[in-house]
Design a protein that fits this description.
single chain; 288 residues; alpha/beta; Aldehyde Oxidoreductase, domain 3; TIM Barrel; 6-stranded parallel β-sheet; 4-stranded antiparallel β-sheet; 12 strands; 41% helix; elongated
Length: 288
């Protein structure tokens, strides 16, 4: 599970890389209207309802440009925010505020969007024992941010990366020669502390996965009737995950199944941003 500490130790080189996209030599626009350092302040305003997430990333973006930058918030990650709400202020060199604005907002809007979408999806599973999971379908170089946002929104993380667990998918099965062979090979190779999960697409594969001793069986892109039959075949002999084109719009149709997990790539690849804006930048002539 990604937590604030994990986010903090991983984010700096990624933020630096993002800043380099905007700053190769100088910010010509900012420097043309503010030729010398001038202290200023801007308001961070939410432009629609949602769940805020990524505040530390937002703050750190400005502080990487100038460690004297001050960013304060009236909310914390996971809080509900409303359209028109003032959620924070940025104070510092106005050139720094202008230069860091887009990168900082890109992170905050994206992470808040993922958290908001996840919260709405998780709410649809309320009253069940099903755990909502994300996937590895994340934006390149944004995984640590997006998976953290999923947890803020009330979801859980599946594998972080390929080193994080054994998940045998259709191409692994094809390469190994079948479900039974893939599971046997994984058991022989993987450390004993690793659970073995396998993706299945037919009831025949379900039966083979159960008899071969899979720890977790992922029902991939099955219709509701087939998944119901699959749960009866598994009958408590493995944990069950449902996956395949699961979205906020259709998740309620499968929540009646006796499964342990539902994974949704949509949490990260289809979540719209939460619109936020940095407004009202003005100088602070009396600032020290």
């Amino acid at each position: 599970m990604l937590d604030p500490v994990t986010l903090k130790v991983n984010m700096e080189p990624l933020i630096l890389s993002a800043l380099k996209e905007d700053l190769t030599s100088e910010d010509v626009s900012a420097n043309s209207v503010i030729p010398q350092g001038q202290a200023g302040e801007a308001d961070l305003i939410c432009k629609e309802d949602g769940i805020i997430c990524g505040l530390d990333v937002f703050r750190h973006t400005f502080q990487m440009l100038d460690d004297k930058s001050e960013v304060t918030f009236t909310v914390q990650d996971g809080d509900k925010v409303k359209k028109g709400q003032l959620v924070g202020k940025v104070r510092g060199d106005m050139r720094v505020i202008l230069s860091g604005e887009r990168t900082a907002l890109n992170y905050l809007q994206r992470m808040s969007g993922v958290a908001t979408y996840t919260a709405k999806t998780a709410a649809l599973l309320k009253g069940t024992s099903i755990t909502l999971l994300d996937t590895r379908k994340t934006t390149p170089n944004m995984r640590v941010f997006e998976k953290y946002a999923v947890t803020v929104g009330g979801g859980k993380n599946h594998r972080y990366n390929l080193s994080d667990g054994v998940l045998l998918k259709d191409n692994h099965i094809g390469a190994a020669g079948g479900v039974k062979e893939a599971i046997a090979m994984a058991k022989a190779y993987a450390p004993f502390v690793r659970k073995i999960e396998i993706e299945v697409e037919t009831l025949e594969q379900v039966e083979e996965a159960v008899s071969s001793g899979a720890d977790i069986i992922m029902l991939d892109n099955m219709d509701h009737d087939t998944m119901e039959k699959a749960t009866r075949i598994i009958d408590g002999n493995a944990e069950i995950e449902v996956s395949g084109n699961v979205t906020k719009e259709n998740i309620e149709k499968i929540k009646d199944l006796k499964v342990d997990y539902i994974s949704s790539g949509a949490l990260t690849h289809s979540a719209p941003i939460l619109d936020l804006s940095l407004k009202n930048l003005h100088p602070l002539p009396d600032a020290e």
